[in-house]
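User: Let's play a game. I give you a shape written as tokens, and you guess the letters that built it. Ready? Here's round one.
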């Protein structure tokens, strides 16, 4: 992608998505067009439901939800022997993933969990909700299932 003429602010994910739709349409890549339109529709629905413009964290949450749905579908299709449908779901995931922020590795997530536990003064599983709330705000776009597992390990030891 080329740099924007407005150097003060990078394009929002929604603006980037609009541009990607145009590029995919020009290239005749129907799968990408379909996936991008699906994401645009989900973002628009979130905007309508909330009554306010979608922020970066909302966009990430919508994208994560769509990826999670596709992973579940791919698993179900694979279990049912529908490999061509499972493959399409995995392709859609590959198209959606670039719209997520860079993922932290497990070591970085572990450090963030430890810092949040210290910050919240958590000492047992009863404090898990408080710590998860803080982590959700600070680790936007991170895989919360990994964070939850790490947090449980730390709070039960």
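Assistant: Ready! My guess for every position:
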């Amino acid at each position: 992608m080329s740099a924007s003429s407005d150097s003060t602010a990078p394009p929002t994910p929604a603006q980037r998505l609009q541009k990607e739709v145009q590029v995919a349409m020009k290239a005749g890549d129907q799968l990408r067009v379909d996936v991008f339109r699906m994401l645009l529709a989900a973002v628009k629905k979130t905007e309508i439901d909330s009554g306010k413009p979608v922020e970066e964290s909302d966009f990430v949450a919508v994208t994560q939800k769509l990826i999670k749905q596709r992973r579940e579908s791919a698993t179900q299709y694979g279990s049912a022997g529908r490999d061509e449908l499972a493959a399409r779901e995995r392709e859609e995931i590959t198209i959606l993933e670039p719209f997520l922020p860079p993922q932290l590795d497990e070591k970085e997530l572990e450090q963030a969990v430890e810092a949040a536990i210290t910050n919240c003064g958590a000492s047992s599983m009863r404090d898990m909700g408080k710590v998860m709330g803080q982590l959700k705000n600070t680790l936007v776009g991170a895989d919360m299932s990994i964070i939850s597992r790490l947090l449980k390990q730390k709070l039960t030891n």
